[in-house]
Amino acid sequence: MSRNDDLLARRAAITPKGLPQSTLATATRARGAIIIDADGNELIDFVGGIGVMNAGHCQQAVIDAIQNQARNLLHTCIHVATYEPYVALCERLASLLPHGDATKVLLLNSGAEAVENAVKIARQATNRPAIICYTDAFHGRTLLGMTLSSKVGYKVGCGPFAPEVYRLPFPNYFRSGDGLGQTEFVERELTRLHQTFVHTVAADSVAAIIIEPIQGEGGFVPAPAGYLRGLREICDQYGIKLILDEVQTGFGRTGKWASYEHFGITPDLSTWAKSMSGGIPIAAVIGRADIMDAARPGTVGGTFGGNPVACAAALANIQILEDQNLNDRALRIGEQIFSRFRQFQERCPVIGDVRGMGAMVAMELVEDGDPRKPAAHLVTRIVQDCVANGLLIIPAGPYGNVIRTLCPLTITDEELDRGLSILGESVERHAISHQPATV
Ligand code: PLP
Asked: Do residues 165 and 147 make contact, with C-beta atoms less than 8 angstroms apart?
C-alpha cells in the first residue's frame, strides 16, 4: 500500500464522515505554490488551503516570526494580560483597512467566529434583532454561521437554526440576469430589498446586512458594483450596519487588501481570516470605532482569540504581502488565468461563464449554455483528473459546477502555466467530448 493510501485509510477509519474531503490528495510539506504528498509526488497548488496561502506556503519570515514569538510568550489570553503583538496587529489592520475616521479591531480564531462577533456587535450597536443575508452565501459552520450560510447540503440535520435571519437572492447576474442590462438588473435586485422591508421584516428591526462582495464558496460570483453601492445607501438610510465578509476575498486575492476597495464603498464592520496569517488560525472583526465600542464588556472575546504566535505570524505575513507587492501580482495572475479560461471556453461550450476579480477567477460549467443546468458531474471528474495529474484544485458553487482558482500569489509564471495546462488538458478530455449536439 502506498503512503498516500495508508494515510487516507487511517483518516477514513478515525475521522467522522461529515468532515469534508474535496480530493484524495495528501500533504507532507509545502513551499511557495508546491505541495509534496505522502508518496513524494509534487502538486501545483491552486487551492492555497482554501484561500489561506496568498503569501505562499512556509514563507521563511513567517516561520521566523512564529519561532521567535514561541520562545518568548505562547499564551496569556488577552482578557488576562495585554501583549504587544495583539495590539500591533490591530493597529496594522486598522491602518490598512480604515473604517471611517476611527477604527477598532477585535481578534478571533476563525472566519465563522469573526462573523458571529460582527453580528453580536451590530445587534448591540442598533438594539435590533434581525440580520439579512443571501442565497449561496457561506459564512462558516458555527450555528449562526450555518444559519447565515445558504447551501442546504452544508447544514442538513443541524437545526433548529438561529432566529431572526432573513435571506435575499444574491444578485447573480449570470444565473438570474434574465436578459436585463446591468443597470436594470441592479434596480430590480435593490427593489427586492425595499420590498423585503414591506413584506418580510421591518427596516427598523434590521441590525445588519451581511454579504460577501464576491461570493467564495457560492461560486466566485461578484455582486454588481451598483448593487453594493445601493446597499451602502440603503443601510445608511435605515441605520442598518453593513457587514462585508472578506474572509475569502481579503489580503490580496482580488488585487487589493479588501475586495470592497474595488467597489468604492466602506463597510461598517468587516470580517477577516484565511490569508491574514499564512496558515496559523486567526481572524478579525474590523469596524468603525463607535460601532465596535457598542459591544458591552464581556460580550466578545475568547480564550485563544489573537494568540501571540498567530499575531506574530499575521504581522510577518502582511509584511510579505506588502513587500512583495502581491496585490499587483494577483492582478497579473488573474489576467493569465482569465485569458486561458476564455480560451478553454472557446473550445468547450459547456463552460457557460468565466468570471472573477484579480486572482479569484472561476469558470462555471452548464449544460446547453443554460445557467439553470449545472454540469457538476463534469467538474467532479475534472477535479479528480487534475489531482491525479499533479494539480490540486477544488470546485465551488451550490451545485459544485464551478472550478475556482485560489493559488498562492507567489506562484511562478512557469508553475502557473503548468497548472493551467494540466487543467486545460483535463477540461478538453472531459468537457469537449461533452459538447451538445446542436449549439
Ligand atoms: N466567510 C467566508 C466568506 C468564507 O469563505 C468562510 C470559509 O470558507 C468563512 C466565512 C468561514 O471561515 P472559517 O472556515 O475560518 O470559519
From this structure: yes
pLDDT, residue 190, reads 98
As given in the structure block, the three cell numbers for residue 43 are 502538486
370: which residues sit within 8 A by CB, 6+ positions away? 352
Nearest to 279 by CA among 258, 246, 319, 309: 309
Is 140 a pocket residue for ligand 1 (Cβ < 6 Å)?
A: yes
Residue ranges per domain, the chain?
Answer: 3-55+325-434, 60-323
Hey, what's the cell of 238?
435605515
Residue 436: predicted pLDDT: 53
Q: Which atom of ligand 1 is nearest to the CA of 212?
A: 3
3-55+325-434: CATH, from 3.40.50.300, 3.30.420.10, 2.10.70.10, 3.90.1150.10 = 3.90.1150.10
Site to probe by mutation for ligand 1, drawn from 146, 248, 259 as the one with most ligand atoms within 8 Å of Cβ, is: 248
Report DSSP letters for 67-79, one per residue: HHHHHH-S---TT
Give the gyration radius of the chain's Cα atoms: 22
Q: Is the CB of 243 under 6 A from ligand 1?
A: no
C-beta 247 within 6 A of ligand 1:
yes
Report the largest interatomic distance among the alpha carbons of the chain, rounded to a whole angstrom: 69
CB 110 less than 6 A from any atom of ligand 1: yes
Q: Consecutive sets of 10 residues in the chain, 439 residues long: mean pLDDT of each?
A: 97 97 97 98 98 98 98 98 98 98 98 98 98 98 98 95 98 95 98 98 98 98 98 98 98 98 98 98 98 98 98 98 98 98 95 96 95 95 97 97 98 98 95 58
The CATH topology of domain 60-323 is Aspartate Aminotransferase; domain 2 (3.40.640)
Total-model pTM: 0.97
Q: What pLDDT was estimated at residue 434?
A: 62
